[in-house]
Amino acid sequence: MNSAGVMQRRGFLALVLLGAVLLTVYLVHARLGGGSGRGEAKAAGAVSAAEPSASSSPNGPAYNAGGGDGYGAPAASTPPPAPGSASAGATPVGFKTTSLTGKDISKMGNVVVDSAGWTTYRFDLDTANPPASTCYDACLRSWLPILVDGTPTVIGIDPAKVGAIERPDGGRQATIGGWPLYRFIGDNGPAKWKGQAVNNSWWVVQSTGQRNVSCLPAGAVAPQG
What we know:
This protein is an alpha+beta fold. The chain folds into 2 domains: about 1-45; about 95-210, no CATH class.
């Protein structure tokens, strides 16, 4: 082979080697850079269950009405902390009301509101006989127990249906018909019911203690009984 042919072959091999090196560098960069980008995008768009995003609707359900046991609620097999088991001096979690009022509001119908006018709710995993709450720990980030000192002023509700239970942190949670009462932090004010049918377990409560199953979101199923 003459010298020109040798030089031509060497040049070709050099180009092939350079191409292989460039391809390897590109693949390594794409694998590292691409994976990081996807992870950052996912993290930026994530919303935790404990901090649900607010609905743009002024009234009505804001969150998932599908299966589940409610935000942060323990499984039914997990026993709740014993009443009064919190450390001494701990501040009970919840909203302290001075009154409970049964009233009719537009669209929703009969509801019970606290002294600030917020809609109150009951939770299907709680029990009315005996009255007991299963909402504690992470659940309390979204659902605030309605607390009372002594006997609250009662309007539009049979006083015989109003009671209270002691919570693990020492707070006294109001009950109607045996069902513990809660606020939903997503309501952001009176005359709202964004917590209605959340996880098909949380319901606006009526002055009798029964569920109010009006204004259900798409996908929610009114419970039987």
